[in-house]
Design brief:
Layout (H helix, E strand, L loop, with lengths): L6 E5 L4 E2 L8 E2 L4 E5 L4 E7 L14 E3 L5 E5 L4 E8 L2 E9 L13 E3 L5 E6 L17 E8 L2 E8 L10 E7 L5 E6 L7 E7 L2 E8 L10 E7 L5 E6 L14 E8 L2 E8 L13 E4 L5 E7 L13 E9 L2 E9 L13 E3 L5 E6 L2 H4 L2 E8 L2 E8 L12 E4 L5 E6 L12 E7 L4 E2 L4 E7 L10 E8 L8 E6 L6 E8 L6 E6 L4 E6 L10 E8 L5
Parallel strand pairs: 1-33
Antiparallel strand pairs: 1-4, 2-3, 4-36, 5-32, 6-7, 7-8, 8-9, 10-11, 11-12, 12-13, 14-15, 15-16, 16-17, 18-19, 19-20, 20-21, 22-23, 23-24, 24-25, 26-27, 27-28, 28-29, 30-31, 31-32, 34-35, 35-40, 36-39, 37-40, 38-39
Amino acid sequence: MRRRSLLRTLAVSGAVCTGVGIGTSTTNLVQSVQAQSSSDWQQQQRLLPPDSEQQNGFGYKIELSDGGETALVNTTTSSVYVYAIENNQWIFQKELTDPDGDSESRFGFDIALSGDGSTALVGAPNARPTTQTETTQPRSGVVHAFSSDDGSWSLEQRIHTDTTVSDDALGAAVSVSNDGSTALIGGLQRISNECVVFSRNGGNWIQRDKFTSSDVKGGDRFGSVVALSGDGSTAIVSAVRKEISESDPFRLGSAYIFDQNDDTWSEQRKLTGGSNRQWGPFGISLSLSDNGTTALIGSKSANAEGSGIEAFEDSAYVFSRNNNEWSQDQILVTESDESQQNNILPVSLSASGTTAVVADVYEDEFTGSAYIFSKNGSTWSQQQKLTVDINKSGTFGSGIAISGDGNTILAGAPLEDTESGDQAGATYVFTNNGNFSDDTQVSLSNVQIDDDTIDSTGSHTLSFSVSGVSPDDVKDNIRIALPEEVTVESVIEASSPNTSYNVTVQQETNPIELYVDPTGSNDPAEMNIEVRLRLSSDTI
């Protein structure tokens, strides 16, 4: 069920804030308050590969930058395309190909893009570590790092491990932090069952650590899927063939959480979908929020006793971390009437961990679809279903990515019959059209730096009130924007003391995101949110 499409905004100008430690008055410290009550996703554009020759599998995997302004789209024919926004249209920017000219390297098998859109990792899991293709060295896998200087892309380095083991297929799974400084690389790992972490120092990528799970066994395929949090401090890694119990004949799979301490990575938690599932694998797709506290795990479930999931229903699992303890929050189930064994279920999560997209590639005779879920308070609910008018077996959703800001989705249909040829593939761009609009009912007041809350570190406490939110007693998402140069250290408080409204902090960094649930309010028009933020002293 789609919630109403309404987004309210108030641009605040001339708000004067004074206080101890500021020295002079600060204007426009709160730039805008934006209220969004719904998502309304619409198809914006259809992308095809730029060359006239047929490109098989265009859109099999997709990566998006945080702001939804840069995208990587791969093919099954060893090419990766870079697209970028220009004048509100997606345009082709660059084709990335194997710099060694190795037709057997499987260049582009997996791809990763930094949040700032300036670093791309391209896996070539069947490449040799040396640049010489005619060699006795094993095809153990390589990752190619590319960097962009204002849209001009160039090869930065060929990344490979200290040791080379045949059939490791390193680069079959890659992920990179938002700033492009940390890379997590896995593979099909038939032998070593390890993931490798590299960090960038200047223009050089240096191997920092390698790790595996505490209960690893041969054949687990540890490292076959990986994801890194935006801040580069948390990793989630799948072992898609892991036996989760001695009586597990199906190898249902597991996922493992690792945290970084200096340059050392250590296992924090093993996640599973439960031993009562009868089909796997659990962890065929992974996504992490920017701060590493929310994980979205794609799976194939059947006959999960006590979960309410029927046989062969396609599902994704949401886990969250609270005080360093991980727990399962909810199972997101697609509405497909044709869920079946061995389905593919790609997933992607926004930076804040509050919007998820889950694709059902096999729905409607392999035509495919994608489902958008949002987190309201502590509950996830389906918001919208995305489909496109393509041929059967087009496999829409095989590649899926949502931007960090949660406002752009790219979905690939790699087997769509297109102008380029049969099963050449296409990629579709969707945007959230619940755009900001003025609404005079929303107002901001009492913006001030509290004189008595400046602590010993010099941090300042900014307080203000927002009125007129949810006047129709409908749930709202609130976004509070401060100037880009202002660093928000934390949200100290966000509450509605005079009503029964529940206010939940969705994102603490600038812009602040709150979720407001007007449960049982007798007079919603009088609702008032009181917010206190801790700001870094050197940014105001």
